[in-house]
Amino acid sequence: MRQSSSRVLYDPAASGPAYRQLARSIGEAIARGDLAAGTALPTERGLAEDLGLSRVTVRAAYRALAEDGLIEARAGSGNYVRGATPAFEQPLWHLSSFSEDMARRGRNATSRLLDLAHGEATDEELAALTLKGGDRVVRLSRLRLVDGEPLGIEVASLPEALTQAVQLGEGSLYAALSAQDLSPARGIQRMRAVSLDEDVAGLLAVPPGSAAMLLERVSFLSDDTPIEYTKSHYRGDAYGFVAKLDGGDLT
After folding, report:
1. Do the Cβ atoms of 177 and 184 come closer than 8 Å?
2. What is the mean pLDDT of residues 233-250?
3. Tell me: the pLDDT tens digits for 210-225?
4. How buried is residue 159: exposed, middle or buried, by Cβ count under 10 Å (0-12/13-18/19+)?
């Protein structure tokens, strides 16, 4: 089990929390095939000693990897790399960007800019962003790819008055917002199953009528000002979601 740690390229000088850096390193090793499905990962103590980290850091990294569906904990046995799943799984209990989700998995997430336009907000955008009639928005349409394969299409609408200085394009939207002190603090997301029309299916390289997930998300600043309304179509054969359920009063 200890030998698995030699395939984890952890860089202590990298930026960000140590547990996230470790989780990303393990995710990249899994993506490269260095850690195959079914591989037993080192114990928390063993990996902590090998890398000069605390057990708390290793435990947090393993927890993040399990939440992302990359590893699984087996009672009395340890942590193991999960087998292939038909879809990427996005956790629903924290707000994160597509780029961040894929980076944690060690995958190469890229975007192709489809359109960047300014215009008056539609009724749908007015309601989602609590704008007034005549207010304008910026619409950012992108094709999202993982390792070069199209996975989804996102159309983000942002209040023009708040985001004039934001550099929008193919990079991470949340990183661009953060650079202007406009980081989303929370969000509300709804989803439902749909069938893809010919245009969207063509961009996603699947047959028309293919199953997909339609996501609608509104993100808010820390003062509850809406900053983003995004509608996304993700391929049903390549993207899934996982929710954490806590037991309450089950009587």
Report:
1. yes
2. 73
3. 989 999 999 999 999 9
4. buried
In the chain, CATH 1.10.10.10 sits at 2-81
Q: Using CA atoms, how far apart are residues 11 and 9, in angstroms rounded to an integer? A: 7
Q: What is the CATH architecture of 2-81?
A: Orthogonal Bundle (1.10)
Higher-confidence residue: 214 or 91? 214
Q: Is the pLDDT of residue 86 over 60?
A: no
Both structure tokens of 230: 């995004």
Q: Look up residue 90 and give its two tokens.
A: 């996005």
Distance, CA of 97 to CA of 124 (rounded, Å): 22
Q: CATH number of the domain at 88-242, out of 3.40.50.2300, 3.40.1410.10, 1.10.287.3610, 3.30.565.10?
A: 3.40.1410.10
Please give the model's pTM, rounded to 2 decimal places.
Answer: 0.63
DSSP letter for 14, please: S
DSSP string, 134-201: T-EEEEEEEEEEETTEEEEEEEEEEETTT-TT---SSS-HHHHHHTTT----EEEEEEEEEE--HHHH
